[in-house]
Specification:
The chain is of the alpha+beta class and 714 residues long. Among the domains are: 39-69 and 444-710, 3-Layer(aba) Sandwich (Rossmann fold), CATH 3.40.50; 283-442, 7 Propeller (Methylamine Dehydrogenase, Chain H), CATH 2.130.10.120. The chain contains 13 helices and 40 strands. It starts with 9 loop residues before the first helix and ends with a helix. Mean pLDDT is 92; it is low at 1-27.
Length: 714
């Protein structure tokens, strides 16, 4: 993103760049004006810088070919969307090059549970055109949006511009229409969960509603059909200092709301609210793993312990998955049971598709040095004595994800994929053999590639595992290598088939030119449990970066690659990762992509929802934590005169998760320091701006940048 910037007064900027990091943090930030997402001066700067990046990246030698090839890849049969299995119907959001915003579709299910002919009930592009609002439909967790047992009425989450603020509207899948006079919440950060056909649990940030530290709803009430939203009284309220309060429900006949206070992202408090509005806090430890409640069933609430605990007089080891019986008929003191106790060398990979609960079973992914298997646990007699059975062994290099959409059936959707193994979605029903729901089309022939699992030794002696996807028959010499990772909030990175985290179909262009891909499983992630996560929070954050550097240096020492052939990319915390590595170790990398990043840890709490993340990164008001942050925070560590690799920094104006200020400020400061810097800001897209279907231009520019820098022969 090289550009000629709108310059600040030379004297002020020069002084800022010459001061040591701690002094700059204490003084007024000369680029603070770039933090205002819609500020006139900041937007003018962003638009000018983006136009210059488009022109310069578009002029790269590879761009015309790359753009054409990406267009062809996107025009192929698209990846199969997730199927949400809801009673007698299946639901999906179908996206392809002609419909990048998606078609919400339904299909009747046959006797075996498989979907029949798909019918479109909502074209999001048509809705955008009709209402003149750039809506994007959020479908993560869509199953809980629809009212059991018919699953016809759904609470759709429509995001103007793709950010975290949404409009919630009641939609009827059977009639393909929004419900006249139905439940509706205006644009805000909001949650809504069905309690019954005529009652919804709701939390929102409209008007003067209480908010959490990060600007999410702190108060939740029971909203009756026909009642004005402003008249809803709170049944539950978190604290102003909470990071976020999350909501779900438990049960089938007598539904109860489950509210989780994330006091921070390592400390959680769980409460129940019944249909009358009565609430009670559950006697569970607060030291449970992110992100609090992992699943709910017909009667159980499932969490995982981060530390050893004694509950109801019984000792439980850290990492144990436990269930709380929410059935009102269960006696107090006999509600908690151990679902699964991992062995010493295994970890339950529970977040983001790693754990799911059906009517009376809990399915879990077990991780051992990046190799996975799936087990199921069942409480057959309702007495808290869970029995387990093996469900699936996963091939090395492939990974699995789990999802259950109903609490009144034993149905599980399970997906298996690898870097070059198309994703297959299966239905597991009762104890029947699994049935294929859908399979992704083959985007490229994967026979010429192999996935290895290796390990490297970090600076403090810790062994760090990594995935390496490489050609079976590489060309002689150092290999062109892309690397990415995450390493925060206890989140594990799993290989997928051209998933968004690796650039989607755009990665195909890299691989077809002989490129390789590596993903280190650094500390801060969840690959080895809670201790692996907390080993890289706050003052220990550098451990995560040291782990990534260790894998990089290991691959260089082995002769596999060389610094002038290595590019790094990452999104969100991964964008912070790459920005940190590019400023700490510019000698190791030849190209850096920092997508929707955090970059200014000192002012993070003033942008997006950064105030919620101080437990992860640190509180600048605590001297020891500020000192640690100033050692790695990319914005504070750009130094004039340092030879940096070229940077591509990407963001959306509507990204209210991290806020566009981080990306803008890093790009501005890098360019001021003389680094080759490209900045690209889309005015839509939110935190997922680098979506190849929705934004093929950006991804073509990104791949041109990487190919030209790392594959000069191409």
């Amino acid at each position: 993103m090289t550009f000629t910037q709108r310059m600040l007064p030379a004297l002020a900027l020069g002084l800022a760049l010459c001061l040591p990091a701690a002094s700059r943090a204490a003084d007024a930030d000369a680029l603070q004006w770039l933090e205002d997402p819609h500020g006139a001066q900041a937007l003018a700067w962003a638009r000018q810088a983006t136009a210059q990046a488009r022109a310069r990246l578009g002029a790269l030698p590879s761009h015309a070919t790359v753009s054409r090839e990406l267009g062809s890849a996107l025009a192929q049969a698209p990846a199969e969307p997730d199927q949400y299995l809801l009673g007698e119907r299946a639901v999906r959001l179908y996206r392809d090059a002609a419909h990048p915003y998606g078609l919400l579709q339904t299909a009747a299910r046959d006797a075996q549970g498989l979907a029949g002919e798909w019918k479109t009930v909502l074209d999001v592009a048509e809705l955008r055109k009709r209402e003149g609002i750039p809506f994007e439909l959020q479908v993560y967790g869509f199953g809980s949006s629809c009212l059991a047992p018919e699953y016809a009425r759904c609470l759709l989450r429509l995001s103007p511009g793709g950010g975290d603020e949404v409009e919630i509207r009641e939609f009827d899948l059977a009639t393909a229409r929004f419900v006249d006079g139905g439940f509706r919440v205006g644009k805000s950060r909001a949650f809504a969960e069905w309690m019954s056909a005529d009652q919804v649990l709701v939390g929102h940030t409209l008007g003067d509603q209480p908010k959490s530290l990060a600007g999410w709803p702190a108060a939740f009430g029971l909203w009756k059909r026909g009642q004005a939203l402003a008249d809803v009284k709170p049944a539950f309220q978190g604290q102003p200092g909470d990071a976020i309060v999350q909501a779900t429900t438990v049960g089938t006949d007598r539904v109860q709301a489950v509210l989780t206070r994330a006091i921070d992202y390592s400390t959680f408090e769980v409460s129940l609210v019944d249909a009358s509005g009565a609430s009670r806090t559950l006697p569970l430890p607060q030291a449970i793993k992110p992100f609090g409640v992992l699943a709910t069933s017909a009667r159980h609430i499932v969490v995982q312990l981060a530390k050893d605990a004694t509950i109801e007089g019984q000792p439980y080891r850290a990492e144990t998955v436990i269930a709380y019986d929410a059935d009102p008929a269960t006696p107090e003191g006999k509600r908690v049971s151990a679902v699964y106790v991992p062995a010493a060398d295994e970890f339950v990979d529970a977040g983001f598709g790693g754990l799911a609960a059906t009517r009376d079973e809990v399915f879990l992914i077990i991780n051992q040095h990046l190799r996975q298997r799936v087990v199921a646990a069942r409480d057959d007699d309702g007495d808290g004595r869970w029995t387990t059975r093996k469900v699936l062994d996963v091939a090395a290099g492939d990974t699995v994800s789990l999802r259950a959409d109903e609490r009144d059936r034993r149905e599980l959707a399970i997906s298996v994929a690898g870097f070059v193994t198309p994703r297959s979605q299966y239905l597991l029903r009762d104890d029947e053999p699994r049935r294929l729901l859908a399979q992704d089309p083959v985007l490229m022939d994967g026979a010429g590639f192999t996935t290895e699992i290796g390990s490297a030794t970090s600076r403090d002696g810790t062994s760090v595992d990594y995935f390496l996807l490489k050609p079976r028959h590489p060309k002689p010499g150092p290999q062109p290598l892309l690397m990415t990772g995450y390493g925060a909030f206890g989140i594990s990175v799993r290989p997928g088939y051209f998933d968004a985290i690796v650039g989607g179909p755009a990665l195909k262009l890299w691989l077809e030119r002989g490129g390789s891909l590596a993903i280190p499983a650094m500390r801060g992630g969840g690959e080895r449990g809670a201790a692996w996560h907390t080993a890289a929070i706050r003052e220990k954050r550098q451990n995560s970066y040291d782990d990534f550097i260790a894998v990089t240096e290991h691959l260089i020492r082995s002769g596999f690659t060389a610094p002038d052939r290595i590019g790094i990319f990452g999104m969100s915390n991964g964008g912070l990762l790459t920005a940190t590595l590019g400023t700490q170790r510019p000698d190791l990398f030849a190209a850096v992509v920092s997508d929707v990043p955090l970059t200014d840890l000192v002012r993070m709490r003033h942008m997006g929802m950064g105030a919620a993340w101080m437990n992860e990164y640190g509180n600048p008001d605590v001297p020891e934590q500020l000192a640690a942050m100033l050692k790695y925070s990319p914005y504070q560590n750009v130094r004039p005169g340092t030879r940096y690799p070229p940077f591509l920094v990407t963001i959306s104006t509507e990204d209210n998760r991290v806020g566009p200020g981080h990306a803008r400020k890093l790009a501005h400061r890098l360019a001021d320091a003389g680094a080759t810097t490209y900045f690209y800001e889309d005015e839509e897209g939110g935190h997922g701006v680098s979506d190849a279907l929705r934004n093929p231009e950006l991804m073509a520019l990104r791949m041109s940048f990487l190919i030209d820098r790392l594959m000069p022969a191409n």
